[in-house]
Specification:
Layout: H1 4-26, E1 28-29, E2 36-39, E3 48-50, E4 53-59, E5 64-67, E6 72-74, H2 80-95
Antiparallel strand pairs: 1-2, 2-4, 3-4, 4-5, 5-6
């Protein structure tokens, strides 16, 4: 029987790798910091991070999320499922 914790870790690792690959391929200069980030395309992917602050950028190298005001968050502020959906959607958006 597989250990569920190890399966979740594999998904987390895969999501981190996917974020890095997307940032490497489609990264742009951040509006909030001096680094290259994956900018979020599509309102449905701009999830609420805190009050009126919503996700606008992902920095895969630092495993950081940036909101529309420039505040930085760790990945764990959103669920793993939400992060995976956002990354899947971004891959589709950028390839379209």
């Amino acid at each position: 029987m597989k250990n569920l914790s190890s399966e979740i870790e594999k998904i987390q690792d895969f999501a981190t790798e996917k974020a890095s690959a997307l940032q490497s391929s489609y990264g742009q200069q951040s509006d909030h910091s001096n680094c290259t980030v994956l900018k979020i395309i599509g309102d449905e992917n701009q999830v609420n991070l805190d009050g009126s602050r919503y996700l606008t950028e992902i920095d895969a190298e630092r495993e950081a999320l940036f909101d529309n005001k420039g505040y930085e968050y760790y990945y764990d502020v959103i669920s793993l499922e939400c992060l995976c959906q956002i990354l899947d959607n971004q891959e589709f958006q950028y390839k379209s």
